[in-house]
Amino acid sequence: MEEIIRVDNLSFGYPDGQPALTDVNLTVYQGEAVALIGPNGAGKSTLLLHLNGILHSNGAVKVFGRPVDDKNLRWVRSKVGLVFQNPDDQLFSPTVFDDVAFGPINLGYSEAEVRELVTRALDWVGMRGYERRSPHHLSLGEKKRIAIATVLSMNPEVLVIDEPTSNLDPGSKWSLIKLLRGLAITKIIASHDLELVQALCPRAIVLDRGVVIVDGVTSHILADMPLLMAHGLARNKPSGEA
Amino acid sequence: MKHSFLDQYSDRDSIIHRLDPRTKLITTLFFILAVVLTPPDRWQAFALYFLLVATLILLSRVPALYVLKRSLVIMPFVLLIAIFIPFFKEGEVAGSYNLWLWQVTVTYSGLQVFWNILAKAWLSILSLILLTSTTKFSNLLKGLEKIRLPRVMVMLLSFMYRYLFVLVDEVMRMRQARDSRSFGGGRLWQLRTIGNMIGTLFIRSYERGERVYAAMVARGFDGQTRTLESFNFRQRDAFFGISLGLVLILVTVVNLLY
Fold first, then answer.
1. CA-to-CA dists, residue B95 to A156, B102, B103, angstroms
2. Chain A residues touching residue B212 (CB < 8 angstroms)
3. What pLDDT digit, counting tens, does each position of B43-74 carry?
């Protein structure tokens, strides 16, 4: 299997001195769907921001074997598509079309190619016909889908999504899960929605306080109640309660 | 939360709606220029300008009452700026009043300038309302870009349009959160709360700015802005532009003859 993303001994601290990641190692192979789970503030989003070079990693992150540095940033970003948690941050253009076209235009595609990529990406997320709409007047579920389309339009090799189902009602959530399952692309999904993880990702990585706790088969990890409880992923039973 | 659009009625259809945004932008600009540059004593010219803009509003099928209401929203600001002019302009005195220690005089020429500013502002506002209610905001932005307004300014307007209502929503939520926990308290206390809210809003906007920028960078943004070309300038645009230009010239000529 081809290695897509490899992270070697990645450590990172925010400017205020708080350590966010400590010695993180992981490798993601082509075609995998990997869940990154952990409590709030575990460092999931920080790790995702390293994967396409938004945060600098000094060569600790490699994409297709090439270390991410200032010179190949554009190439890295065309390979690793990162979808942010809040679609109101991801969607910043006056129309849906402009937003989905933003990536391809920046990558230098011609007008005809851009139009085709946009149509195809919107088709994939079931949002065709929304081109002229303004993001502000869409529902959250629709915004989440469009946000994914804005990245798919760049034809990435791997889709990295931060909390895809946060704040969605169960109906929208399951339709989004179905959509993601249908996308034949390598996925890395950060979430603490364990239903989503179980439904989508055969492999899971538990991250807590910036440290990788376990990296393994999702069904084993989700069955390990003491582990889940220790890392804020399951309800802690007060002692004495059955 | 749902808000009224900035560009309400822009999705209707009329001769004016179908014009290229650039045509509308440029003709609006020239209309405003003509209005502003007309000498104050040419009231006939102003009547003609009003007739012109009123005809266009009728043609655009935007409800006249809506245009009127919208224009009245802006007038207080103009009034605020213009209100002192009658008192400072020198000339024939129209009236003199004693206000406690001060003596205040109003001059005829001052009054004329005052009315003139109001009339000019109102005509300009009418034409701008016509522009924004017959053009989708996104098309207006593209039009501005095509007539070579610096890209940075177009982006500023674009972000403003996109996030204005997101911020309004945020303020509404903050107000609800405050009201559900506020039980009176003095004026000073309330002012302090409002100050804190404004501060919080600023920090949140700043942080949102950083996240939006990260989302742009993640999609290959490198400081350069690129766009697709997609407008076409048609015959009717040329026709409209030329005829409006002619009318404006006509008004000026008639003016000179008087």
1. 76, 14, 11
2. 89, 92
3. 888 999 999 999 999 999 999 999 999 999 88
